[in-house]
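Worked problem 6 (solution included).
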Amino acid sequence: MWNNLSKGLLAAVVVAVGAAGYLFWNQGTLRQKADESASKAQALEQQLAQAKGEVGKLSKEKEAELAKLKQAQQDMLASLKKEVEAGEVMVSQLADRLSVKVLDKILFASGEAAISPKGQDVLKRVGKVLAQAHDKDKVIRIEGHTDTVPIGKSLKSKFATNWELSTARATTVVRFLAETTKIPPDGFEAAGLGEYHPIADNTKPEGRQQNRRIEIILYPRVAALAEEVPKLKLAPAGETKP
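Solution. The predicted structure is:
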């Protein structure tokens, strides 16, 4: 009887010890998993805080950039006050773009791509403001535009269509600005758009006059915008950036 009781007690002790061991091991495993989860949560919080900091930094940089562009607009308006009041030049800012539209009559003789003395004076003043506002993250795009009146027969040998004329005028303005400012040549773009992007009615003389223009646009490079995107991406939880 006692022998059977001893065996029973021994078996109970073994079971109890085994259960205790299992519970101890299981508790340790759960604690380890809890610690890992806490570590991942902490890492994620750090990444979120870092991302918020980057967003805040980008926001401040953007505000400063827009303020600089606004100042450039005001400087341009002041420098070209006479031409603006005469309706020969239009200066506007939209978001992160500054646009200066110059009617062709103050830059070129009819059907020509050589810049007139008056046009050179205007472009020098434009270039001075652009040089202050331009940096490596911006590009200056020069667009040549015409009306829908075909090229005259006497000019056909020089410019087959309005497209050729608009392109020649745009590249002439680019070369002039590059030579008279300290802006590197790779900071410019030239585009001849011909008659295909009107801003006024080509059936009316005053509309055609508005369409014959050079448009100078200061705007961010695409590459500069693309560089901002990776800054906002989060690494997987538990990983840290090098």
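Discussion: Strands lie at 89-94, 97-103, 138-145, 188-192, 213-220.
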